[in-house]
Design goal:
The protein has 144 residues and is mainly α. It is built from five helices and no strands. α1 runs parallel beside α3.
Length: 144
């Protein structure tokens, strides 16, 4: 294999994507899942919340609580802070909800998983809801 020495490959100026051939240079680029969420992904998450009726500014705290519970990201204070992987997964989960009742069930399942892991004293694997989901406000659970 012919490995090129030098700086990492630059992203294409119009698409903001690193060419696929950059994968041939291990250690020189991060995974696409670890990069910041794109504007399209953030828009998809906001669109899903809008479709569920949670687009009012008064619901911001509830939206962030849902994001923290479903993404396992306790330090999130804005949807724009999500990685591409987290935003994609969240958009898929939210798009599977027909209404707020489905969202409440989804968040309840995430809380239950965290509580079960805590009862069994199993360390959190990082795949799925974070332990911070246990701190999700109970009032959100009955808001629908």
């Amino acid at each position: 294999m012919n490995v090129r020495a030098g700086p990492p490959l630059a992203a294409h100026p119009r698409t903001d994507r690193v060419p696929l051939r950059a994968a041939a240079y291990p250690g020189r680029m991060t995974s696409a899942l670890d990069r910041p969420a794109t504007a399209r992904q953030v828009g998809a998450v906001h669109g899903a919340f809008r479709r569920l009726g949670l687009d009012d500014p008064a619901w911001r705290g509830a939206r962030l609580a849902v994001v923290r519970a479903l993404c396992g990201a306790p330090g999130i204070f804005s949807i724009r802070q999500l990685t591409g992987g987290e935003a994609g997964r969240l958009a898929r989960l939210l798009s599977s909800c027909r209404d707020c009742r489905d969202l409440v069930v989804l968040v309840a399942l995430a809380r239950e998983e965290v509580e079960d892991a805590a009862r069994r004293r199993i360390p959190h694997s990082g795949a799925g809801p974070a332990p911070a989901a246990a701190a999700l406000s109970p009032s959100l659970m009955w808001a629908a």
